[in-house]
Each structure stands twice: as C-alpha cells, then as structure tokens.
Amino acid sequence: MPFSDLTLNDGHKIPQIAFGTGSALYEKDAADAVEQALNNGFDHIDTAQVYHNEESVGAALRDSGVSRSEVFITTKYGGGNIREELEKSLTKLGVTYVDLYLIHFPASVEKDFAGSWEEFEKIKKDGLAKSIGVSNFTVDHLKKILETANIVPAVNQIRYNPYNHAEHASLLRFAAEKGIIIEAYGSLAPITKKPGGPVDVPVAQAAARLGATPAQVIFSWVKAKGAVIVTTTSKKERLQEYLGVGDLPPLTQEEIEAIDAAGLVPWHNKTVNLCGLDVPRSVLLTVILFLFVIASSRLRCY
C-alpha cells in the first residue's frame, strides 16, 4: 500500500517520504528534479535557506501544475533575522506559508535558544508555517528549547541509518517521549558510502525475501522506526523504486533486529587506489589473506 501520512504532535499530517533538495542539488537549479519528483508521486518537498535553490524549487512547484494544497513543503532557517529569512524563503518558493519550518542547525540559534524558538512559535501562530521543528539537534539542544517552549518541536531531522542507530538511542527515546517525530536523511549510507559492511548481509536477506532492492530494504527499516524518509535522486526509475517502498510488506521484527545488530559492528570502508581503481581495503585484505594461505600451503608441500 502507499505511504501513509504520520500525525505530528500539533495534529498536522506529514507525508512519510520527502524529496530532498540538498546534497546533489546544493546550490544548483533544482527545478527539473523537483518537477520530476512531483510528477512521479512525491508530495513532500524538503529544501532550505542554505541550499540556495529555493527559487528553482518554487519554479518547479508552479510549473508542475500540482495544487499547493497537495504538496507538503519544508524549508529550514540557516541564519539571519528569522522572520525576514522565512519571508524571503516564501517569496522564492512562491507560497504564502510552508507546512514545516525547521531550525537547520543548533549553531544558528545557540546565542539565544529561547528567543529564537519564541520567534518560531510566533511564525506558527501567524500562519506562516503550519508546523515548526528542528534539525541536527541533540538531546541537550532539545532540552534547551523545551526549557521555555510553549510549543514542542514537531520534528527533528537528523542523519540516520543502521550504522548510527545505536548512537542516536538516547535521542530517539527522548524524541518519542516528547512526541517529536524523527526525519531521516543520509539513510542509504550503508549501501552508498559504506558498501561491503555488516549491514549488507541482513539487508540482502530481507531483499531476497521481499523481492526488493537493498535501498528499499533500508527505507523499509527507516519506515519501521516511525521516521520520515528524506531522499533524492535525478533518476525517474529511482523515484519509483523509493516510492515503491510503500507497497512492500513490512520487515519482520527479526529482520529489523538483524539490521540493528549488524549496525553495531564498527565499519569504515576505506579504499586503496590500485592502477586507478578504488579497491575497498576489506577486499584487498581478504585477497592478501587468501594468497598468504595459498602460499603457506605450497611451502608446506616442499
């Protein structure tokens, strides 16, 4: 079945998968990519002041023909006067409000957590943002906000994948206690940044059972954790692959636990350049060990 919306702590709904315009689209014209995402079924677009592409995102929103009410728009504050920066973002996006406005980094407000969050609360009350939240916040950062907050942040968007799941344990517990939904970016790192690691095994096993791709299994794992997926791609087939996660049967509890456990194993996939090829160090060490065993067995024969 398709992705279901999640309910935020303020009662608003948020689509559980978003098309992000950071990373590969940072400081680039995102119009074609965003329009393609909208035309293929994405209804949640995630952008930010510091991505420097809100204007092209706005162009895509207009050119797609999709009604404003049918698109969930997230943008993020990255510095400067909070209300003025949001108004600039709204102008660039060509909208009168965003569905979610986030503090992108704690450093943007560390000089005045209380005053900054108070301004965010005013923005919500004034209807410029339906929901407000944070990004890249730790438990300590959240506690600083909550010391004086009248409105609890609706979400905390963080880098989240099986390899840092345990590292975020206390943050995940705290967020759950406060009704703060986690948004996850960088979730495909196990297969894009750190391939060949321990997580590959349970992911491959689940993929075989489901007839799914490794990326779909990783996103199914994120979905099972109750988090919102934030991802991006320039390829139509990848968009359909990612949206297809909503049609997959859920991972079993055993599969989720196996991925969790594999993520506990330290893994740093460094490469060695051999004749112009980046060979994973783990592969190189395996080959060297194999050759050593062969050589040793031959020596014993003499």
From TrEMBL:
Pfam families the record matches: Aldo_ket_red
Catalytic site: Y51
Similarity field: Belongs to the aldo/keto reductase family.
Entry GO MF terms: oxidoreductase activity, acting on NAD(P)H as acceptor; oxidoreductase activity, acting on the CH-OH group of donors, NAD or NADP as acceptor
SUPFAM superfamilies attached to this UniProt entry: NAD(P)-linked oxidoreductase
Residues annotated as site: Lowers pKa of active site Tyr: K76
Entry keyword Oxidoreductase: yes
Lineage: Eukaryota, Fungi, Dikarya, Basidiomycota, Agaricomycotina
Record keyword Oxidoreductase present: yes
Organism: Botryobasidium botryosum (strain FD-172 SS1)
PROSITE patterns, alphabetized: ALDOKETO_REDUCTASE_2
Domain of life: Eukaryota
Protein name: NADP-dependent oxidoreductase domain-containing protein
